[in-house]
């Protein structure tokens, strides 16, 4: 990659939590993003204002041309949140499944797209750093973080955390952005209780990983998880709305902090799908 581009050296507390970043933290993030984007521009297109939307697409096309395996091609996908007035929000999904979004207060839809492209380009460049490759040390840290997120689960082979470790070990050498969609699938399966159900059916971690490694995060999977939440709502009235409120807060905080969003966004989308289905059934 470009030898003189260095990844951001800071790691602020709000990047690891669901709290909203304060004004100083937002300014630090903005300066870091601008620095990386400008550095990238100097190494690829010379001095001057860079079109970050084009630069982001060209970055991933360059990776594909270098032989990086991309199941769904190198297309970068943008999704604007419907709104009739500012501030506007735009999400961007990268090849490999990682998702970022506009992190600034954007007065236009075009500015929201540029903001999303900026944070995605910064992370794409940062992703080339050796520290982002899945290694033994990386696996130990990721498993520890996962265990802290889901206390009560241990690291034995038949648990969700054990399956997560096995999945990481089978993907050594890949970068996190290339691995994101598969990881999100397993995060959702753990969150939704599906991994626990498979464990109770005596499925081995190899069987679970082998099955879902070839699955894409598509409408069929989202619909099935939405049906699971509808069933929970019937058993415990109000559970769906509580989880949706929590997911929306988590997504908003993560977006404003400039964090990777695929897992919280998918959670919110699945819960919204369940909520809409529940509302439709009440009206019918």
TrEMBL record:
Keywords attached to this entry: Coiled coil
Pfam families in alphabetical order: LIX1
Q: From what superkingdom does this record's organism come?
A: Eukaryota
Its GO biological process annotations read: autophagosome maturation
GO CC annotation: cytoplasm
In terms of Gene3D superfamilies, this protein maps to:
3.30.160.20
User: Which residue spans adopt a coiled-coil conformation according to this UniProt entry?
Assistant: 230-257
- Quote the InterPro entries the UniProt record gives: Autophagy-related_EPG5 (IPR051436), LIX1 (IPR029270)
Among PANTHER family, the record links this protein to: ECTOPIC P GRANULES PROTEIN 5 HOMOLOG, PROTEIN LIMB EXPRESSION 1 HOMOLOG
Q: Which family does it belong to?
A: Belongs to the LIX1 family.
**Name of the protein in question:** LIX1-like protein
Q: Which organism is it from?
A: Apolygus lucorum (Small green plant bug)
